[in-house]
Amino acid sequence: MASAVVRCVGKLNSNRTALFLCDMQEKFRKTITHFPAIVDTSSRMLRACQIIKMPVFVTEQYPKGLGHTVPELGDLSVVTVIDKTQFSMCVNAVMSALPSEIDSVLLCGIEAHACVQQTSLDLLEKNFQVHVIVDAVSSRNPVDRMYALDRMKSAGCWLTTSESAVLALLRDASHPHFKEVQKIIWEPSLDSGLLQPGGREPSGGKL
Questions:
Q1: Distance, first Cα to last Cα, the chain
Q2: DSSP for 40-95, written as a single string
Q3: What's the average model confidence in pLDDT over 127-151?
Q4: Isochorismatase-like domain: which residues (predicted)?
Q5: Of 87, 93, 112, which is closest to residue 33 (Cα–Cα)?
Q6: Confidence band of 2 (pLDDT split at 50, 70, 90)
Q7: Helix (H) or strand (E) holding 133
Q8: Rounded to an integer, what distance in angstroms lies between the CA atom of residue 22 and that of residue 107?
Q9: pLDDT tens profile 60-74
């Protein structure tokens, strides 16, 4: 009897998933649409993933000119922050440090149509499953963000929200860290409108 084909539906497993936080730096503070909300959501993802003990990678694009990661992102004392000039986060310093069991990446940051998109496409080419956290990515121009999300979805990325991703990682209310992470989920979030129909749905579709 032939073995059944296992369908890939983008389920997350915390033991095989890493968090990528892309280029949330001082110079972008006044130019990126909904920057405070993007950083706030990314900070939630960082704290949740640290509690679950997942690998986290943070990059800075040309920090000499664009400044360092904004402090609001959170405690990076145990995270290696990697500077780069390449737009994609898939530089050798990141990829060589990625544990071999990792096959999925949660992706947050800026800009959606540049560094985030190029990171996602590079990861897909390397056979990673990529989950773009739509309430944690933005660009200077909302239109660039909209088409970038459409492009990434068409290429094979999963578009999801921060809360959906975190709950998918926990999977069960009996998870030993559920109550601690639940407190993060329940914190009031900054209203950006990014998850409203007019704020993000590419091609008129759903997430």
A1: 37
A2: HHHHHHHHHHHHHT--EEEEEESHHHH--B-GGG---TTS-EEEESSSSS--HHHH
A3: 97
A4: 17-163
A5: 112
A6: low
A7: strand 129-138
A8: 8
A9: 999 999 999 999 999
For residue 168, which phi and psi values (nearest 5 degrees)? Answer: -65, -35
119's CB contacts (< 8 A; 6+ apart) are: 20, 22, 87, 88, 89, 90, 107
Hey, which residues are catalytic here?
23, 84, 115
Q: Which of 150, 162, 161 is nearest to 201 (CA)?
A: 150
CA dist., res. 44 & res. 39, Å (int): 9
pLDDT for position 1 = 56
On average, the pLDDT of the chain sits at 92
Give all domains of the chain, ordered by start, each with its CATH number.
17-184 (3.40.50.850)
pLDDT in tens, 42-59: 999 999 999 999 999 999
Q: Return the CA Rg of the chain.
A: 16
Q: Which residue has the tokens 């892309």?
A: 22
Measured CA to CA, the distance from residue 104 to residue 102 in angstroms comes to: 6
Tell me the C-alpha distance between 67 and 69, whole Å.
7
What are the tokens at 190? Answer: 């900054």
Q: Tell me the two tokens of residue 170.
A: 């926990």
